[in-house]
Amino acid sequence: MEKLLNELSSQCKPAYSVKCDVEINAEIPENLKRKSNLGLPNVAENDLLRHFTNLSRRNYALSTVFYPLGSCTMKYNPLINERIAKIDAFNDIHPYQPVESMQGVLEIVYELEKDLCEIVGMDSFSLQQAAGAHGEFAGLLVIAKYFKSIKQKRTKIIVPDSAHGTNPASITFAGFEIVPLKSEADGSISLEKLKEVLIPEVAAMMLTVPNTLGVFEKNITEISKLVHDNGSLLYYDGANLNAVMGIVRPGDMGFDVMHINLHKTFSTPHGGGGPGSGPIGVKSFLGSFLPVPRIEKRKNKYVLNYRKSKSIGKMKAFFGNFSVILKAYVYVKALGGKGLKNVSKQAVLNANYMLAKFKDKINVPAGSRCMHEFVLSPKAILENDVRTLDVAKRLLDYGYYAPTVYFPLIVDEAIMIEPTETESKDTLDKFIDVVNKIILEEAIEDPQKLKNAPVNTPVTRLNEVEAARKPILKWQ
Amino acid sequence: MDYTSQNQNDKKQMLETIGINDTYELFNVIPSHLRAKDLNISCGKTEQELLNYFSKIASKNKKLVSFRGAGIYDHFSPSLISEIIGRSEFWTAYTPYQAEASQGTLQAIFEYQSLICTLTGLDISNASLYDGATAVAEAALLALRVSGKNKILISSALHPDYIQTVKTYLENSKTKIELIPLSEKGNIEKNIAETFIDEDTATVIIQSPNYFGIVEDMDVLSSLAKSKNSLFADVVNPLSLGIFKAPGEYNADIAVGEGQVLGSPMSAGGTTFGFMVVRKGLEWKMPGRIVGQTIDKDGKRGFVLTLQSREQHIRREKATSNICTNASLNALAACVFLSGWGNEGFYNLSQINISKARYAFEKIKSLDGFKAKFDKRIFFNEFVIETSKDIKKINKILLKNNILGPLDLSTAGDSFGKCLLFCVTEQRTETEIDNLVEFLAKA
User: Fold this and answer.
1) Looking at the complex, does the CB of residue A92 fall below 8 Å from at least one CB of chain B?
2) Do A154 and A220 have their domain in common?
């Protein structure tokens, strides 16, 4: 057990200090002064270093284990990205510096916008959004503003039940109502069912392609036509873009608005839950609605343009998570067009290789082919009250992070696996063997082993129910 | 360079296992008329080429001695911070859904929550939000949810980007947003605010120190909000809380703010993080992740994500927010930052900001052509100076000498036409300040 900071606190000399080199009387009136104890711990630098280093060692991370987390695209985070992002002349720049003193920053944002347009077939991009869900929200606000501008009252958004939870949450957040659409067993959309819900109030339909079961939407051309014939727009959730780069572009499929997760497809790290970046791309007729400021190039000089009367406004302060944007741009320059295409080919090959090894043993509701990820449903073979959660916890014992479980919601006991392109065949082979061993052998011969798992982790299975029932949310 | 490792032999074996001859067959399901042409993006670079390429782009940025704040600040970052957030076990980890394999991240967030609570004097902190601006917008939404009311009142001395963000977030709701005008003294006066607040006001949102640097009388404004059963939400600079009254002391319901000052570099405005902390009773309405303490099967202490039924992955369209990815690594930096000062050291850090800013203020306002816009007001590390000189010319001269001069406030409203917003943190030395003053005197 690693102590908490308040338990480490002592009468020692704390780690940091600063001195003042000016002399001045700067008295503060009593009524504005803090009276309560700050309550900060007193820990020496040496002990703090050990504390946080020890904490880091209680994590599974991409740098230590295979992380086959479906839908999250846990690909290798290139070290050169981090090295470049640490350059002082990128880090120590104030967002309100005169533009002539930060041309490098603006160049990177501008050029990445341009490259993203090319990769996904859109006309304009905004990199201001801080995460995928933030991008969804911005994209939906753009859609709302567009319909307002053409004086159409459209209040509803169609979303399939296989979608990520952020889709419905973003729809409500943006002031729309949800029209749920039941997807087929493989997560695909039935044209007949779609026709039933395509009423005049529908502003847009949100789609994840390939869908969350890893299946490409084969009727996309027809879906696009139906949606547009209804006067509605089509939104692309870019969570699964890693499957199709250089193969097919959302813009060419008929999508009008989309978001990308730079922290998935473009190799920037997840940081234990952020920061991320959720750029949104739109077709030209929606360009004027993007957030301000827009970065423009005038006579070889990059400038910030705040004067956009139709813009949805600002999604956050300043102009985006620049350090994430920078890392993603380094990645694009490292790969080039050919490399990006190879990424998707290899990601899809890796996933299909794994699927081929599983499909005769464990049920795969979406069939024997997939794109960059696939979903197993071991329900039929799990006995003795063993559940997918137990399989996931047992995988931790073998030194793997667990795949995404119980998602998508339309699959029973789902195990969602996304290997990404950066894992070797050897890593995949070993993982496949372990999953088969757990589900096909251990679960049957020694179910208690799964129920008791994990045992090789810093703590054994944690009581989540108790945590929610009697919340302890800070030091006692 | 594409970071894949399979050789031809691997690929051959994989294709055989799948039962196909070429990877392209896996894409057969995609209609041929939709297939992409070759992407027009220049071919890949090696690591060495990348370093050269980006060093060249970096050289088009100028690292300056900063006297500018307005939301992003140049502060000292202890060496420990880059060491810890540079540990790949932290930065390459995912959101800690598998708790047993994520105790490092989870305990660090729990410590972060504890530190933010003790600093603000409030009860419950979440694991972080995107930034200060979005944290304010989330605070407004939280208040609207809790109260069922339809109006929010915002200080017009809230950072303009934050006001804009709140407006964007609430664009499609029926919420009425009203701004409380600034008094001539540069603060929000109770008697002015009083004329705006009514029974339908869900929350009163006040920034202190405000956009113009002035510390507000939060006691008075908080009481006013309470008198109409409105939630009092404050936007605070966490570094100022070493000296100035904490949100808990004036009975704030919600405290939010920008966390960049707690150990994150300026990075052209991102990445940073937003913090949010609330009084007990509001936790189930809060957006974002929250970490809680629990025990494992053997009775050992451990940490998990908790109160998750508020969140989008469980609650979908009924979630308190759509937020998923937040800014965990920046919150970790804040955790490492806040754990190394001790009470006295942190108080001292706050005090040095006040002293240095005061030192610069006294010198600048006594120069010919410069005067204090709001004299005799209490400020933290920013202040407004009015000048009769040419602002553009001043900043040009300063820039030529590698100084990032004060922010031109002419866009902040008519009464700020000839005004400058200065910022002086603990980073600025006496020599740098004196140097600035000299340039101003000559301008």
Assistant:
1) yes
2) yes
Mode of pairing for the β-strands spanning B382-387 and B370-372: antiparallel
| pLDDT, average across residues A433-446 | 96
- CA-wise closest residue to A417 among A391, A442, A383, A451: A391
Which residue among A302, A335, A368 closes a domain?
A335
Residue of A nearest to B63 (CA): A89
The shortest C-alpha distance from B196 to chain A (Å) reads 24
Q: Are residues A121 and A196 in the same domain?
A: yes
Structural domain span for residue A25: 5-56
Domains of chain B: 8-51 (no CATH), 65-75+343-442 (3.90.1150.10), 79-338 (3.40.640.10)
User: What residue of A is the nearest CA neighbor of B398?
Assistant: A98
Please count the other Cβ atoms lying within 10 Å of the Cβ belonging to residue B100.
Answer: 27
* Same domain assignment for residues A50 and A130: no
Angle CA A181–A184–A185, to nearest 5: 135
Q: Which residue has the tokens 């004299």?
A: B375
Structure confidence by residue, pLDDT tens digits, A127-171: 999 999 999 999 999 999 999 999 999 999 999 998 988 999 999
The token pair that represents B345 in the structure block: 């050291």
Q: Count Cβ–Cβ pairs < 8 Å, chain A vs chain B.
A: 662
User: Total structural domains in chain A?
Assistant: 3
Would residue A229 count as lying in a domain? yes
Q: In A, residues 185-214, which contact B (CB 8 Å cutoff)?
A: none
pLDDT tens string A48-94: 999 999 999 999 999 999 999 999 999 999 999 999 999 999 999 99
Residue of A1, A66, A96, A264 best to disrupt the B interface, most CBs of B under 10 A: A96
In this structure, is residue A139 part of a structural domain? yes
Contacts of B243 in chain A (CB under 8 A): 28, 33-34
In a shared domain, residues A440 and A363 = yes
**Same domain, residue pair A278 and A385:** no
Do A173 and A245 fall within a single domain?
A: yes
Here the CATH number for the domain that contains residue A227 is 3.40.640.10
pLDDT interval class at A104 (50, 70, 90): very high
| Whether B343 and A20 lie within 8 Å, measured CB to CB | no
Name residues of chain B where pLDDT drops below 70.
none
Last residue of a domain, one of A335, A359, A382: A335
Kindly state whether residues A195 and A52 are assigned to the same domain. Answer: no
pLDDT at A384 over 90: no
Residue entry with tokens 């001043």: B394
Closest chain B CA to residue A401:
B101
- Which of chain A's residues have a Cβ under 8 Å away from the Cβ of B109? 272
B161 chain-A contacts, CB cut-off 8 A? 314, 316-318
Among chain A residues, the shortest Cα distance to B61 is held by A102
Interatomic CA distance for residues B139 and B235, integer angstroms: 10
Considering the domain architecture, whether residues A440 and A350 belong to the same structural domain is answered as: yes
pTM of the model: 0.97
How close is the nearest chain B Cα to the Cα of A383, in Å? 22
